[in-house]
Protein: Leucyl aminopeptidase
Organism: Pacificibacter maritimus
Amino acid sequence: MPHFFADHSAPSIPLHLLMQGELDAFLKTQDTKTVEWIAAQGFTGGAGQICTVPLAGGGFFVIAGLGGEVDLKRTRFGLAQIRSKLPEAIFHLETSLIGAALEQQVLGWLFAGYAFDRYADQPTAKAQLIAPEGIDQARLEVLAVGEFLTRDLINTPASDMGPDELAQAAQELASKHGASCDIILDQDLLDQNFPMIHTVGRASIHAPRLIDMRWGASGPKLTLVGKGVCFDTGGLNLKPGASMGLMKKDMGGAATVLGLAHMIMALGLNVQLRVLIPAVENSVSANAFRPQDILTSRKGLTVEINNTDAEGRLVLADALALADEEKPDLIISMATLTGAARVALGPDLSPFYATDQCDALALNGVAQDASDPVWQMPFWDPYEKMIEPGIAHLDNAPSGGMAGSITAALFLRRFVTNTPRYMHFDIYGWCPSALPGRTKGGVGMGARAVLAALPELLKND
């Protein structure tokens, strides 16, 4: 595990973290020269402001602003934007923040240390922090490692993150935590009845596969299913170049469930965890599947293909059918599935669906404190007829362009019939521009909220 915090015994510089309304009280504790210095620097406690204050006997301390309540609502990780402005030194926090609010800011500090430097050196924050009292240091470090794993996987281009490399990443994670990891590859997919995973991936030179990881021998059964489309050309319904540009992130669901799996295993939660990832590349070749083809799924449901660019739900369907056969306590799928979800909620919010409203309430109840916002979408039964083409049981891409995220979620729900509790996340997995604690590029969505909700989601009735 990376070393995220400075040693507690190291000499450190005070970093006073102030809300905008706390400045006056702070100034009353300082001498006249210090007050005059702070005023001369124009420091007001605004979000992201810092002021270095020299001490009479040498040295300095720093005050930094989080802004007001509005700023906290608009910027999840105020301390993250402060870290990049600090000099290379070791700091300790002086703040009135406690509990979840403090942990949220410290987690942002850790996230601000991320850099994707596989292909070129990247600037990194130099300031270090001593872990403040009152936080769960070990847990925050686990969250950071899981998030960085997700980001690294998404950021790696398909030239180095195809189905084989994604499987290797899963196997490395399994080995790290003493989990098992089986890979069902290529022709074996057909022999073991995963026809839609095979069909979507067969046109690529990189063979399709299903990754099946297991960990834990006791506790409730939780199965995570992640979409692992390592690159999506759109197939014969070829995407235009502009739409293909970010398709290295189409395995963002797989990257997110692997990051979440790391968190669960590293924290030693009492759960029987299974992770299923259909890993494919949706390519164009003589044996690519075609519009108007009808596929038979693992569950026996037939699917009419009305758009080969709606392939993610096909590979997820076979994996969900396998997950459902075991009847776990809860199945959660995560996928960069539809542009409709991105249009509806943008890149910050994780849209999710839940068959059990108690699960939805549990997730909503912890997401804010986890600094991982979510938004519930409906499994709207009246739209079921939109995914029924008549010639087959299901339509993979209903015409009309209406309710695209909902109809995709309804499609997936058809493959979970033995497990009453199912949740689906239609995430974006990408930060379009750099934000505090989130560099431009791949980003985890929903994982920390799920982790925080697991005690409630998996408690014994």
Q: What stands out?
A: Residues 99 and 249 are 34 Å apart (CA to CA). The longest strand covers residues 272-282.
